[in-house]
Design goal:
Blueprint (H helix, E strand, L loop, with lengths): L4 H24 L7 E9 L15 E4 L2 E5 L5 E7 L2 E9 L3 E9 L4 E8 L6 E12 L2 E12 L9 E8 L8 E6 L13 E9 L6 E9 L12 E3 L3 H17 L7 E10 L1
Parallel strand pairs: 1-7, 14-15
Antiparallel strand pairs: 1-4, 2-3, 2-5, 5-6, 8-9, 9-12, 10-11, 10-13, 13-15
């Protein structure tokens, strides 16, 4: 059967039209952009420590309102497959609350998002009482140490090292003792002051005694405080010498250094 030329032209035109349409659709499609990653790191401002596990809980991370999981013990989380652009990062930190940060991710880029927070800490108010007495021909001392947590976080594994120095020898303590305290709840949340006693401390007949109290705490974000932060009726000319002696004693007895030094108090007694 013969085919007319007009039909051939019509088919040819139609075929070309279809091919042209396909080409136009292909060239107008959006290019696929490579996704990126975000590495989230959480750090405490005062101690520069990573904030991972906090009292049994972990900081939770949201990206653009979507839950992306929890930080590790090392205070870090890698979020993979993030679309290029600006994203809102929210980290929910136990004991602290929410912290927000906007992060821009480039095409195929891995972005480090470091977030610093000022984690709450226990803060100790310290009371020291010493009463000398005679036992036969020996002078003894009854020492009481009272701690109150006036901070914003529970203390952990709190203990106190008590050192007794004679006024005429500030290089070596004549007696030492570790007093263990329970976890102290902040006073603002109904916490109570706790007193521990050393009823039979060695005192030296004749010279005055100086009692030094070193408070240790295991809350991970307690800032290290290896300076004398308070003193009670202590002559200024002996403070620096005694502070040096205390730190030297701690260096020589690392087994006594329990976690972080939270406070050092020097008290003078006759």
């Amino acid at each position: 059967m013969a085919i007319k030329r007009g039909h051939l032209v019509a088919i040819g035109v139609g075929t070309v039209a279809v091919l042209v349409t396909i080409v136009l659709l292909a060239t107008s499609a959006k290019p696929v952009l490579a996704k990126g990653d975000i590495i989230v790191t959480l750090i405490d401002e005062e101690t520069e420590k990573r904030v991972g596990r906090v009292d049994g809980g972990y900081p939770r991370v949201l990206l653009d309102g979507v839950d992306r999981g929890y930080l590790t013990d090392y205070g870090e989380l890698k979020i993979e497959g993030v679309e290029p652009g600006v994203h809102e990062l929210v980290v929910i930190v136990p004991y602290y609350g929410e912290v927000r940060k906007f992060v821009e991710v480039g095409i195929g880029q891995t972005v480090s998002a470091t977030i610093k927070v000022d984690m709450p800490n226990p803060v100790f108010m310290v009371g020291v009482e010493a009463r000398p007495y005679l036992r036969g021909f020996d002078e003894r001392g009854h020492i009481k140490v009272t701690l109150t947590n006036v901070g914003n976080a529970d203390s952990k594994g709190t203990s106190v090292l008590v050192l007794v120095y004679a006024e005429d020898d500030l290089k070596t303590p004549i007696a030492t003792k570790v007093l263990d305290f329970p976890s102290l709840v902040p006073r603002g949340r109904g916490g109570w002051s706790v007193t521990q006693e050393w009823p039979d401390a060695d005192f030296k007949w004749g010279p005055k005694e100086i009692v030094v109290v070193v408070v240790f705490d295991a809350w991970p974000f307690t800032p290290q405080n290896d300076k004398v932060v308070s003193q009670i009726a202590v002559p200024s000319n002996v403070v620096s010498e005694l502070a040096y002696s205390v730190m030297n004693y701690l260096r020589q007895h690392p087994e006594l250094v329990i976690e972080t030094i939270a406070r050092i108090v020097i008290a003078w007694y006759g």
